[in-house]
Amino acid sequence: MKHAHPLQPDPQTSPKLAFLLPDLRGGGAERVMLTLASEFANLGYAPHFLLARAEGELLDQAQNAGFPVTNLKADRLRGVASPLRRWLRQNEPFALIPAMWPLTSIAVWAARGMKVPVITTDHATLSDQYASKGFPHRLALRTSIRATYPLAQANVSVSTGAARDLETLGLLPNHSVTVIHNPIAPPTTPTGRADWPAKAQHRVLSVGSLRWQKDFPTLLHAFRHLLDQGCDAELVILGDGPDLAMLTEIVQSLDLAQRVTLPGFSSDTGAYYATADLFALCSRSEGFANVIVEALSHGLPVVATDCPHGPAEILSNGKCGTLVPVQDAAALAQAMAAALHAPHDPDTSRRRAKDFAPSVAVQKFHTLLPNQHFSNTVGTS
Questions:
Q1: Which of 55-59, 186-190, 260-264 has the lowest mean pLDDT?
Q2: How far apart are CA 284 and CA 351, in angstroms?
Q3: What is the pTM of this model?
Q4: Burial of 2 (0-12, 13-18, 19+ CB in 10 A)
């Protein structure tokens, strides 16, 4: 049964904002789009979700919020263009906001010749994300960005470093990509319970997709070092991904089975944040790193790798957390031990998290939307 969001405008009469995604899996970009949609609904817009495939852990959340969801039924992303163009012609949305290349380029191409402004949004450092794909893929990536992004109403990236990377990669003019940090909703009261593996003195949490970019093997080796130093700690890594089997083997080989669990995806990460003592991020690269802001919003101390490009921006170059070199298990272990035993003011973390409030991001998006007379009539939040 679907329950309309209490502030949801009439999808038939309010200006439609279309959000285009591959699906609504439980990833950072998908959560960001849902958060943006909720904020835009508060301003009187009618968010619509257009999905290449109507599936994913967050699909129910969108539907329960009262957001219409259209299944474009595209098995491959390149098959999105035709049904998307048909939907745009029939619905004439106020604007189209696609997330993640190649949907960004596909959206601009599909909207050609129509009066539908497109605001592309990229949530990763693209040159890092696709570095392993080889030269032909990089050429296609660069060519498509160069051909389509200048035709959009605006191009958005989630951190300064990722924005400059996008400009270089796509041969775009300097400072032509707008930086809008990801909106992170404030914590809500957890509805579930956190299942920690041991009754240890210190609880360390990490959250992210189980894949190469997140470099959880380094975190596991660092955690082994931490225990070997005499620290009584336990670790939970929340998330799903292709590296699960490999990480499970590492846990066994390092004799961490009694101290580490990988419970998979959780829709109630708040229960873990609320009961953790430290948040650790060990990524090789990030476009932004939403999970750092989530941890700060719960008042947690943060230790993160100084990877390109989000963590240093979020942590004010180390003023709001500890930054360590990428793939350095010993340095990560030392930083975690220091953070667990050092005094920490949770209010300092929470104040920094407020800089990434959804209202801040939506007001920045507002400046990119056409026909500002509408937004002036509905007010701000």
A1: 186-190
A2: 27
A3: 0.85
A4: exposed
Confidence of residue 128 (pLDDT cuts 50, 70, 90): confident
With a cut of 60, say whether residue 205 has pLDDT above it. yes
pLDDT at 2: 38
Task: Give SS3 for 44.
Answer: coil
Backbone angles phi, psi at 159, to 5 degrees: -150, 160
Q: What is the dihedral of CA 376, 4, 21, 162, to 10 degrees?
A: 50
Q: Using alpha carbons only, give the angle 371, 91, 58 rounded to the nearest 5 degrees.
A: 95
Q: What is d(CA 276, CA 278) in angstroms, rounded to the nearest whole number?
A: 6
Burial per residue of 335-374, b for 16 or more beta-carbon CB atoms within 10 angstroms, e otherwise: bbbebbeeebeeeebbebbeebbbeebbbebeebbeeeee
- 190 vs 59: which has the higher pLDDT: 59
Tokens of 74: 């595209």
Measured distance CA(243)–CA(284) in Å, rounded? 15
Instruction: Give the Å distances, CA to CA, from 38 to 32, 42, 160, 315.
Output: 10, 6, 25, 26
Identify whether 309 is preceded by a cis peptide bond (ω within 30 of 0): yes
Candidate from 11-25, 53-67, 96-110 with smallest mean pLDDT: 11-25
Q: How wide is the angle at C-alpha 58 spanned by C-alphas 57 and 61, nearest 5°?
A: 135
Distance CA 42, CA 37 (A): 9
Q: Tell me which residue has tokens 């490999």.
A: 246
* Cross-strand partners of 122: 157
DSSP string, 313-380: HHTGGGTSSEEE-TT-HHHHHHHHHHHHHS---HHHHHHHHGGG-HHHHHHHHHTTSS-HHHHHHH--
221 vs 276: CA distance, rounded Å: 20
Residues 6 or more apart from 136 whose CB is under 8 A from it?
none
Q: Identify whether 136 is preceded by a cis peptide bond (ω within 30 of 0).
A: no
Q: How far from the centroid of its chain's Cα atoms is residue 244's Cα?
A: 20
User: Would you say 213 and 345 are in contact if contact means Cβ atoms under 8 Å apart?
Assistant: no
Q: Identify any residues that bridge with 96 across adjacent strands, giving them in sequence order.
A: 18, 118
- 163 band by pLDDT with thresholds 50, 70 and 90: very high
Write out the two tokens for 21.
């995604």
